[in-house]
## 1
Amino acid sequence: SPLCSLQCRSKTGQGRRRRGRLAGAPARTMPSSSAADSGHGVATATAPSRDTAVEGFVSSLRTQDEVDVLCQKHGVPKDQYTARPAGDLRANSTPPPGSICVYARALEAGLRFPLHGFFREALAHFGIAPAQLTPNGWRVMEGFVALCRSAGVRPSLAVFLRFFYLSAIDRKRKKGWYCLGPMRDSSSLRFTGMPGRGSKAIMGWRHDFFFLSSPEPWHCAVEWGAPSKGSFRKPALTVEENESMVKLLSAHGGVAVDLRNLLPATCPRLRRRRRLWNSNPAVSAAVITTASPPPPSSSTRTTSCSKGHGSICL
């Protein structure tokens, strides 16, 4: 029809003008799913995208000597455990028989072997492996044990869960890394002074891991898992646990405790020569009296959680 003929000629003319305007200009292409930005604004199909999931990290501890030096530095008993480089295994790979994955930064944060009874209980409660807890998560648990020691109370998981909560680093990955943050109650226990993202104590922590085997049961998950919904419920407190909670709050509640004073070996200070004091005199006194290196092993004694009040999810 005349109308159809007119529309066809109009579309043809528009196409010619569009091609004329684009003449001499480089063709624009949509990058494929595997394309990555080279840094100059040009998409290249050969550069793979960076995988930030657990599977994307290979351990940088490649030799047995590196692993042995690390274990010796942090007091891992050679007569009870055997440490081996991860090789091509990922941190969340099925571990060798009798083994768990261990991050070097977790050792720096206070993780010790044999595992402290409170640590075993917490890991078993949530159903996660030791490597699933971030380095600062270990600092939170170590700090809680230190505060309990200074208050003269037994570390209790039920009490701990009244003050801190577990949260996934990436909610899309249930069997991934987890961190610990303080409850939002202003009178609750909370910590400050933990290393941040730019700290040498944190940078690259996902790349430094190995496997540690034991002839004895670990009494916690060895393969990476996901916490059950029931594990996030607050357990009822016994009479003794209620008393412990009152003692902890009276000694340390309301003001953040600086872990650089409480656990100086696991939370190194910056080079600035400035003494850090708590504004609460009672807390300062407790911190000073309990300042000590990481405790010995139990044989002798957005991320989603970044929304937590004062938590550092690393």
## 2
Amino acid sequence: MAKKRGQRRALARPRRCEPRASGAARLGALGAAALAPPCRAAVRAAGKAAGPREALLGLVAAMEENSLGNLQQRAAELECMAEVLLTGEQLRLRLHEEKIIKDRRHHLKTYPNCFVAKELIDWLIDHKEASDRETAIKLVQKLLDRSIIHHVCDEHKEFKDLKLFYRFRKDDGTFPLDNEVKAFMRGQRIYEKLMNTENVILQAREEEGAKYERTFMASQLIDWLIQEGEAATRAEAEQLGRRLLEHGIIQHVSNKHHFMDSNLLYQFRMNFRRRRRLMELLAEKSRLMPESHDSPFCLRKQNHDHKKHATFLSGKRLIRAEDYRSVPDSQVIWNYA
């Protein structure tokens, strides 16, 4: 019996005596699992080096940073979509003015508000929007891929250099109005109302030592949205502001905060009125916009020694700030509305 008891003791697994993890440490482990790999390592390191309270604060900061990063990436993707929509709309209006878009007949049937593919390619080359026919086809294909145009009978999914009829979906009411497009259209309407009315909302202001053109304070925009009937309550207006930020319409001036009812400064992420060139559709997004996604109204940090050389982005090119102020808006932006 004694021999058997000895064998059982030898086979028994020894108990491990380890201290139970604190609540903050367990929370940190759970939070770290939900973060991107670089953030997980940072949270674990902070939990080992600091106490429970510091670990919890580090977790919150890391999760907020990770959330803002994902938000900015999504906003950049939606901004790219918005640029295509704006480019297509500007082209549509120009083609109407040039009578390229008109009612046409084929086999005794009339097709309203359409254009001939071959004629459009000729027009793009003549107006320096494309260097050759192959490039022109690629440009218009971008619009077709985004469901901005389509073949009048939906028989061709590719844009061809032939005598085929195509039409802008906005001209026949078939343009798909998903949530992203609705948010974009509402943001554009708010932008135009702000730009076309005399108000003190859009002003040059400073935040953390940097000066920005045409900024608005979140709390003032909320007041204006309620006044203009865009929202009924402050909570509804704040939710609208958050939606505009998430869809790449507006941004915090230094991309550090989501939209909230506060004195923080925000800007429109893009200049809706800037005239787009079709060739921009073929350019890589990283080349068109800086990695920091600066607003087109962003003045660089200034000091007294270099104030003369302050510049800010207007669309995709740099303009001297002092030169911009002396140039009428009509010469800088193209109002296609």
## 3
Amino acid sequence: MNSWVNRAFTYHWQLMQAAYGSHINSCVIFAGAAPQLRRTLASRLRHCVYFPEDCIAQCGRADRCLYFIHRGEVEVLTVHPNLTESVYDVLGPEDSFGIAQVGVILSIIYA
């Protein structure tokens, strides 16, 4: 049974690395990280699906997440004082966001 568990973990790790490893490898935060750490991080990514009109993150709310866009687009909106919105930027595949809040969290932990 133990060898089956090890094989299942190895297959999972290889699948996640193949599918999402490029996100970790291209992220500025992990540029100097050891390859083994980057592989481990890729295997721990959680796949989430968002639909049009879903709010993924909001300014002022830290959720300790770093988001990588694998497919599709994400609009970054600016909310004006009169509560209207305008598109500030459009992020696409291989883009990421949430780096600032992760960087703040990491600097607090390791300070």
